[in-house]
Write a structure and sequence with these properties.
The complex is a heterodimer. By secondary structure, chain A is mainly β. Chain A contains one helix and 31 strands. In chain A, strand 8 and strand 9 form a beta hairpin. A two-stranded antiparallel sheet of chain B has the order 1-2. Chain B has a two-stranded antiparallel sheet with strand order 3-5. In chain B, helix 27 runs parallel beside helix 29. Classes of the chains: A mainly beta, B mainly alpha. The interface between A and B is large, with 70 and 86 residues.
Chain lengths: 344, 979
């Protein structure tokens, strides 16, 4: 071995719940950090999109204009714009300050699952249940997409944009990477509906979670599998996965209410931490690039009442979740356990 | 039950009965008038108005109105609901009493007329009559009469049509003899369950003997034996105490089952009458003979063994292969005639077939030829050429209806289709001297006059053939101008239409099959465009006869009117269809996805990579590239998305892609050297940025420099292999090889690889076999023709190459070391220098970025020794994915290579690749640098703040933990596991 094996480390789990935010917008469909990790967007099933401050946990603004529950949102790099997508088949570009709808983009044939700005917020990419990814131009006033990527044979479940690459995960069990620079489309076959894809922070790998309860780390260029992370449960829900900001850990939601956390190198045993003491489902994990924050939220039953954002802070000192993780926030959108239990 | 009624229950009583008068009771006082109240059904008082004034009160307080007034509560203003008309039904005007049992419209279930059927089968009547006689109570069948179906079922009807009568059995008509024999046989064959002794049979048989031979009888109506399993614990033949039998001397079901009229009485009527009517008393084997029983039967009835078969397979019917449980074909008759008679009476107009129908020989369907199109085109047998002289529009219509424009041989045309000139040339005659027609003899003014005259009458005096054939053309003309224009007007119109029109626009060629005529027509059109007024006359062939010329003139004018260029306003409104409806081809993605099964297998075996990865050429929109700040990867290509290819729309093979790929199964093509895991190589990106022939021009200088600098080095050798593979596949994919230029071998290889992948996906076993032969196989993939010296040199260079890189990692800064590395790179190999120099042209940062990238990949190495070690390990435990080549594909040279050489070449290849990829890495490098810086910043920040710093520090230089290193470690672990 060229390298000494990394020393086995004690389980390092985030332990401090920093904040819980009751966002009061029904079931929370997605929670996203903005570009610098100071703000959080929560997509509610009550057709509203809300902006929160992470540091204070204060409510900042509501963006309402969608006709159905908001499924995903993304903030632009300069925090001036927000794009969101909804079950009403539309993608909306918001002005952050005024809260007005800058553009409402229609064209998808079904509900839009995921939306993403490109790096310069000149293009909005939206993936829909109709199996297409549409590239909307934010610079022009055209209402037609620049290009429609209709290679997927089933619903697009997840979508990520790196500098010149577009990564889509589809229910047809394929991870597609569109390389604009090379003009190539790479299709990786996973054979199970993809729930979430993301790039590693160094841009060399892709992480994809699929409904066979597996998270796979694939080499971006060759498609080889570098790691396979199992142990969690992901059978029917679209749960998210991500890599930590230094690519040291792989995090994934699980249907048993835990967030599972694997060391990237030592795949052997997942460390999981419970988000709530229920059978709630964490639908989203996100690690912000700068702040090492992690947002997850739980999906409720039909009529959840109370939603909170919880912020976990990893213990500094003796057991740290990596050294850089001085301040790690774990925000959990969800509702109170007791309420949920009674409703179910 | 009607059976035990007392007679009272036949009556219905109304009202309350008077109390029986008692003698000793004093007379009651009469009820005073004010107490004599009348209540309706619901207990409401009703005022009595006296017999002559209408009886009881009605309505609302004796008014016609209601509580709301005169408007009834059901009134709805027609202003809102106009269309909703309320249809009054008779029920609306009825009282509640009318719906009662004795009202005029009772709403209770009563026997309707339908059920009292007049048509009643006589047999049932008779049976009923007899049954009624036999029944305990004479009115036994009352309920049956009450409830009987109005119609017989369709099955019964059909049976009746076929000659069946009620009371008969269903089946072929039989003579008596065999039946009796059957019964005899049945008697001997009592295996366990005793058939009920058919008592009446004997009497019937007696007079049957006198029946003539030619008379057949319908089979007896027997209920089939139903084999109900024995559930009790009693022995065979046990018959328990039947309470009905015991008490009444009758079967219990006899009087209870009212709904089975044909059960007992019918059978009795048709000969199954009981020999003795039993009276009451308990009977049964369990009880013996009661005291009241007078027939002193065999009390202790014992089954004698003689009634059973003691020999298996004794006298069996048929061939005796099976018992009576044998399948039908064994037990039943063999002669087919009897089977036929089973049909009963043969319907009118039919006779029985003497011979069995011949068995049809079913031939397998013919194998489809590969160009088979499962669509039929109707091709009316219209001789277009015959009509072509008449109306070009119609001829065209007919021609298109035939599917394809059929090039017809002018020789095959009729004699009359040729003009005199053509005939002359065919016969080899010389042209006639002198005037060709009478018209030439005339003076020009006369000729003109004649012409005018003829032209003016022309449209109306068309030949009869043309009038009815050229209706389409005529209608077109009529649409254009309401009065049919005269010939001259028409010509002027045509002239106006064609004048100044662009000659380059595609005009329709109506006379395509006679080239000379078409040439004349083209000439005519040209003249029209130039504004020539007598274009028509000039363009016609003067050598033709006058009649031919006039005909052609007419045709030309007509054609020019029909196919005149559409005016600008009109043409601006219409666009030509992008997709023709009748087009036979359909757009299909050029690169089809490979076999999913193989991929699934690969996923199951967790062999991600080559097997699961597919790469397609993809064309992003130009604007999208612009928005992403990325140069267009395929400049000049008008395609967006995946490139499409036109295929035959109806070809079966469009949908049989799997079959196709199987058919052309070729040995697996090795993946190109550019596509490797980055886990064993420093960089992995393929350098091929050029896909198209257009873009090839751009990359040409670069590759050319590659050529010129070192023809013997790996790049050229790889080209050689690619060329070899190309020649191999030329047959397979002509079109793809056409597209490719010699300049971009990378792309070529990649595409070849793609094609290969889709065409020949070998089975998993093959892959497994390849895997089993491990790494030497893999290294043979490089298959480079270069000699050992070069390899060795390369190896050494690789060492020297990497050492500065390691140095570089220690210092991590960029500018000073970058020069060192570049120099080392340039010394190491000429190709690398060529690459770098070519990339220098793009930016000055490139060189430094190249080095940084190489540094990143190798920064985890601590020294040359460790590098070697790791390199060897990498050689052993390299990528687990399919080796790049099979020996068959790449020729034998690679196979012969010694192990060491293979290793060397492998290493070299790796290096070479890294060189190639350096170029591509440029764009990322900047970012990487930033990242490093950023990390350091962060580090410094964290140093101040974090208390757990030292702990992490003692972690092997954890501060330096780069993602590359992490991944490297991960890879190592993986290789461990696979070992």
């Amino acid at each position: 071995m060229a390298f000494p094996q990394p020393k086995p480390q004690a389980p390092q789990l985030p332990q401090h719940l920093l904040r819980t935010i009751d966002c009061q917008q029904g079931a929370v469909r997605a929670v996203r950090f903005n570009a610098d990790g100071n703000y959080v967007l929560s997509c509610g099933s009550d057709k509203s999109l809300k902006l929160w401050s992470v540091s204070q946990g204060t409510f900042l603004k509501t963006y309402s204009g969608h006709g159905y529950e908001v499924l995903d949102a993304d903030g632009s790099y300069d925090n001036s714009q927000i794009c969101s997508c909804s079950s009403d088949k539309s993608v909306i570009l918001w002005d952050v300050a005024t809260g007005q709808v800058t553009r409402k983009l229609r064209g998808h044939a079904g509900k839009v699952n995921c939306v993403q700005f490109n790096e310069e917020a000149t293009v909005i990419l939206s993936g829909s249940i109709d199996g297409t990814v549409r590239c909307w131009d934010t610079r022009s006033r055209r209402f037609e997409p620049i290009q429609v990527l209709d290679e997927a044979r089933d619903s697009i479940s997840s979508l990520k944009v790196a500098q010149h690459e577009l990564l889509t995960g589809s229910v047809d069990g394929r991870v597609r990477r569109y390389d604009l620079r090379m003009g190539q489309l790479h299709v990786d076959f996973v054979n199970s509906p993809i729930t979430c894809v993301c790039f590693s922070q160094d841009g060399q790998c892709t992480l994809s979670s699929s409904l066979d309860s597996t998270v796979r780390l694939l080499d971006k260029s060759t498609g080889e599998m570098l790691g396979e992370f199992t142990g969690h449960k992901m059978k029917g829900y679209k749960l998210d996965c991500c890599l930590s900001s230094k690519d040291t850990h792989v995090l994934s939601c699980s249907e048993d209410g835990f967030v599972y956390c694997w060391d990237l190198v030592e795949v052997c045993s997942p460390l999981c931490f419970k988000v709530l003491n229920t059978r709630l489902i964490n639908t989203f994990v996100m690690v912000s690039s700068r702040n090492e924050c992690l947002v997850s939220h739980t999906l409720g039953g039909r009529k959840p009442r109370c939603f909170r954002i919880r912020k976990f802070k990893s213990a500094g000192g003796e057991s740290s979740f990596r050294r850089q993780v001085l301040e790690s926030y774990f925000l959990i959108f969800g509702h109170l356990a007791s309420d949920w239990i009674t409703t179910t | 039950m009607a059976r035990d009624d007392d007679g009272d229950e036949d009556f219905v009583t109304f009202g309350t009965a008077l109390e029986p008068l008692e003698d000793d009771e004093p007379l009651r006082k009469p009820i005073p008038l004010h107490e004599q109240t009348v209540k309706d059904e619901k207990g409401r008082y009703q005022r009595f108005h006296g017999a002559f004034t209408g009886g009881f009160s009605a309505g609302y307080f004796n008014t016609v109105g209601s509580k709301e007034g005169w408007t009834p509560s059901t009134f709805v203003s027609s202003r809102q609901q106009k269309a909703d008309k309320h249809h009054a039904r008779p029920e609306d005007f009825m009282d509640e009493e009318d719906f009662g049992e004795h009202g005029i419209a009772p709403r209770q279930i009563t026997t309707s007329l339908e059920f009292s059927s007049s048509r009643r089968d006589e047999a049932a009547e008779r049976a009923k009559a007899v049954g009624a006689q036999a029944a305990l109570i004479p009115g036994d069948t009352l309920l049956e009469e009450l409830i009987s179906p109005a119609k017989s079922s369709i099955g019964v009807e059909l049976l009746r049509r076929m000659g069946w009568r009620e009371g008969q059995g269903v089946g072929p008509r039989v003579k008596r003899k065999p039946r009796r024999q059957q019964q005899a046989e049945g008697g001997t064959k009592a295996y366990g369950c005793m058939l009920p002794p058919a008592g009446s049979e004997d009497s019937e048989d007696e007079y049957e003997e006198f029946a003539p031979d030619n008379v057949t009888f319908a089979p007896k109506d027997v209920t089939p034996v139903d084999f109900s399993p024995r559930l009790g614990v009693q022995g065979l033949g046990y018959r328990g105490l039947d309470p009905g039998l015991a008490l009444l001397g009758r079967g219990a079901d006899e009087h209870i089952d009212l709904f089975r009229p044909q059960s007992e009485s019918r059978s009795r009527l048709f000969g199954d009458a009981r020999s003795s009517v039993r009276r009451g008393g308990v009977a049964g084997q369990a009880f013996g003979v009661g005291a009241l029983e007078d027939d002193d039967e065999d009390v202790y009835h014992r089954d004698s063994m003689s009634r059973y078969d003691t020999v298996l397979g004794g006298e069996e019917p048929g061939d005796g292969l099976f018992g009576w449980t044998a399948p039908q074909q064994y037990t039943k008759k063999k002669d087919k005639s009897k089977d036929a008679s089973y049909l009963g009476k043969i319907l009118e107009g039919f006779t029985l077939a003497q011979n069995p129908p011949e068995e049809k020989v079913i031939f397998p369907p013919p194998a489809l030829p590969s160009n088979y199109r499962p669509v039929h085109r109707f091709r009316p047998q219209v001789d277009v050429s015959r009509l072509s002289g008449v109306s070009p529009a119609l001829a065209q219509a007919l021609k298109t209806s035939r599917g394809h424009m059929i090039k017809e041989d002018p020789q095959q045309e009729g004699r009359h289709q040729l003009d005199s000139g053509q005939r002359r040339t065919m016969l080899g005659e010389d042209a006639l001297k002198g005037p060709s027609s009478v018209m030439d003899l005339l003076r020009p003014e006369d000729r003109q006059r004649l012409l005018n005259l003829r032209n003016s009458t022309n449209p109306t005096t068309c030949t009869p053939v043309s009038t009815d054939k050229s209706q389409v053309a005529k209608q077109d003309l009529l649409v254009g101008v309401a009065p049919p224009p005269s010939g001259l007007q028409q010509q002027q119109k045509v002239l106006a239409a064609w004048r100044g029109s662009n000659a380059s626009t595609q005009t329709f060629k109506p006379f395509e099959k006679t080239p000379s005529k078409q040439a004349r027509y083209d000439l005519y059109l040209d003249r029209l465009r130039q504004g020539d007024t007598d274009a028509l006359e000039q363009s016609l062939d003067q050598t033709m006869t006058e009649w031919e010329r006039s005909r052609e003139r007419e045709e030309f004018v007509r054609a020019s009117v029909l196919y005149r260029p559409s005016s600008s306003s009109l043409s601006s409104r219409f666009t030509s269809a992008k997709h023709k409806e009748d087009e036979d081809s359909v757009e299909v993605n050029r690169d089809e996805e490979g076999d999913v099964d193989d991929k699934q297998n690969a996923v199951k075996m967790k062999m991600f990579g080559k097997l699961t990865r597919e790469t397609f050429e993809w064309h992003p929109d130009k604007l999208l590239c612009k928005r992403f700040n990325v140069p267009d990867p395929h400049p000049g290509s008008g395609v967006v998305g995946l490139p499409k290819v036109k295929r035959d729309k109806f070809s079966v093979f469009n949908f049989l892609s799997v079959m196709e790929s199987r058919e052309m199964a070729a040995p697996p093509k090795p993946p190109e050297s550019g596509k490797k895991s980055r886990w064993d190589v420093s960089q992995q990106e393929t350098k091929g940025t050029s896909e198209d022939p257009q873009s090839a021009a751009q990359t040409q200088p670069e590759t050319k420099s590659d050529h010129s600098s070192d023809p013997g080095l790996p790049a050229s050798s790889s080209r050689g292999t690619s060329a070899a593979s190309r020649t191999q596949e030329k047959l397979a994919d002509l079109q793809s090889s056409e597209k490719k230029t010699a300049g971009d071998e990378e792309e070529q290889q990649e595409e070849d690889e793609e094609q290969e992948e889709e065409e020949s996906r070998p089975s998993m076993d093959l892959f497994k076999a390849i895997f089993a032969s491990s790494s030497d196989e893999k290294s043979s993939s490089s298959s480079e023709e270069s000699n050992d010296e070069e390899d060795r040199k390369d190896k050494e260079e690789g060492k020297t190459d990497l050492q500065p890189a390691n140095l570089f990692t220690i210092t991590t800064s960029s500018v000073t070391t970058s020069s060192v590395t570049t120099s080392s790179v340039t010394t190491s190999s000429v190709t690398a220098s060529s690459v770098t120099t070519s990339s220098v042209t793009t930016s000055s940062v490139t060189t430094s970025s190249v080095t940084t990238s190489s540094a990143i990949t190798s920064n985890s190495h601590t020294g040359a020794a460790s590098y070697q070690k790791s390199a060897q390990e990498e050689l052993e435990f390299g990528p687990k994915l399919p080796p790049p080549s099979t020996p068959a594909d790449r020729g034998g040279a690679a196979q012969i290579c010694s192990q060491s050489r293979e290793e060397f070449s492998r290493k070299k290849e790796k290096k070479h690749k890294s060189r190639k990829q350096n170029k591509h890495k440029k764009d990322k490098k900047k970012k990487k640098c930033k990242k490093h810086k950023h990390k350091q910043e962060k580090k410094s920040k964290k140093d101040e703040s974090d208390s757990s710093e030292d702990m992490d520090k003692d972690d092997d230089d954890d501060d330096q933990v780069s993602t590359a290193e992490l991944l490297k470690r991960l890879k190592n672990i993986q290789s461990h596991r696979t070992r």
